[in-house]
Design a protein that fits this description.
It holds the Pfam family DJ-1_PfpI. This protein is of the alpha/beta class. The chain has a single domain, classed as Class I glutamine amidotransferase (GATase) domain (Rossmann fold, 3-Layer(aba) Sandwich), CATH 3.40.50.880. It contains seven helices and eleven strands. The longest helix has 18 residues.
């Protein structure tokens, strides 16, 4: 990444939808927010929903209102797709309205050069978009077989914490989203910023394969 790219504020859109997993969303979100605060203007983070109506997080513990819907969201540089419990993700795959609005928006953005970063079961959401084709990908261990079944043109990695394919980043389960977000901050702005965030988080990073 050149100096001009480093100095540019990156728009990071976080997809939210009914029953989204809390840590899948908030782990990477907090990494990018802390990076923005520390480095002053590195990331502009916002949430995007199918509509601007409130949705419930996993187990209906709280409702959250997206900042934008897919029609009004600022142009993203990166879209983060958190996961949900496997049953909910599979419901979304069969929901034509969700596919024709939310996933079509993500597909259009991806093919216009936007980076897509999925967390946990979030990679399953892309199974009907073609985005995963011919890439190495991963997901939560509970859904690896299903991801492989739905994406026969992809190579499913079963021992990776996250997989970086350039414009596409997929992660293993839940907390792996934090590791991948830290990795991306390092890729964008250097390891010193990562180490500052890790210290601030009091986070014990794992040794992992990329």
């Amino acid at each position: 990444m050149n100096q001009q790219q480093k100095n540019k504020t990156m728009n990071v859109a976080f997809l939210i939808y009914d029953q989204v997993e809390a840590l899948d969303l908030n782990g990477p979100l907090d990494v990018f927010i802390k990076a923005d605060v520390i480095s002053t203007g590195s990331y502009h983070c916002y949430t995007v929903g199918q509509t601007k109506e409130a949705v419930f997080m996993e187990a209906n513990t709280m409702s959250i209102i997206p900042t934008y819907d897919v029609k009004t969201a600022p142009q993203p540089d990166m879209i983060v797709i958190p996961g949900a419990n496997p049953d909910r993700v599979m419901e979304c795959l069969e929901d034509n309205d969700f596919q024709n609005t939310v996933m079509q928006w993500i597909k259009d953005q991806y093919y216009n050069g936007v980076t897509v970063f999925t967390v946990c079961t979030g990679s399953m959401h892309l199974s009907k978009t073609g985005i995963l084709d011919h890439h190495e990908i991963t997901t939560h261990s509970m859904l690896l077989d299903t991801l492989e079944q739905y994406n026969p043109k992809s190579i499913v990695k079963r021992d990776a914490r996250f997989v970086d394919q350039g414009q596409l980043i997929t992660t293993a389960g839940i907390t792996a989203g934090i590791d991948a977000a830290l990795y991306l901050v390092g890729k964008h702005h250097g390891q010193e910023l990562v180490e500052t965030i890790v210290t601030l988080f009091e986070y014990q990073q794992q040794e992992f394969k990329n």
